[in-house]
Amino acid sequence: MTALHAFRDEADVLGHVASRWTEEQWTRPTRCAPWSVRELFAHVRVALAWLPGMLDAPAPAVADISAAAYYRPDHRFSPAADVARIRRAQEHARGLDVRDFRGFTAGLADRCAAEPPGRMVRTRHGDAMLLDDFLATRVVELAVHGLDLADAVDQPAWLTPSAADVVLRLLFGRPAAELPGPPDQLLRQATGRAPRGTELDRLGLTPLTLS
């Protein structure tokens, strides 16, 4: 599955399930303290909303950062960056309207689909990346925080097969079908959302620094 396909699938299902949450569910705390469900959802939307500006900007000549390297533990995960990330999500949560999420993400996917093969972009952190690799990082955001949101609202995980393949390939170099156990449980273990099994090192886990 391509990153664009996975992005489209995972964003659409998140928008669908979120449209059915009650006001009480939106106010619940999440494991991503201090964010509520509404604030974490707003964080995900913000993480996707960088795309149009990146596509409007001039493309770099060479891509020098992979999807896995994007999650390296540098200044983007510093205490100051975390504070800014938290505040940004809280600000966006105040005007959040979940009803536009599916249309918003479908529009992003359509715009990315119109880009030529090998399109490169520069992230807000200054990384030069292939658009496909950056889309893979957006699938990580959708999939991992999708688990956080599902747990907070007491729903089963909705991880889509296409997103599972993209994220597990990034973490283990192999698609979900070649890995043991349910994909959502493996993703939970690999990202510290469940006790880590001894098999993760044997499977060749590539750790990611996540917000």
TrEMBL record:
* A Pfam family it matches: MDMPI_N
User: What stretch or stretches form a coiled coil here?
Assistant: none
* InterPro entries reported in the protein's UniProt record: DinB/YfiT-like, Maleyloyr_isom, MDMPI_metal-binding
Q: Which domain of life is it from?
A: Bacteria
Boundaries of each Mycothiol-dependent maleylpyruvate isomerase metal-binding domain copy? 7-150
GO molecular function, a single term: metal ion binding
- What is the designated name of this protein? TIGR03083 family protein
The protein's organism comes out as Actinoplanes regularis
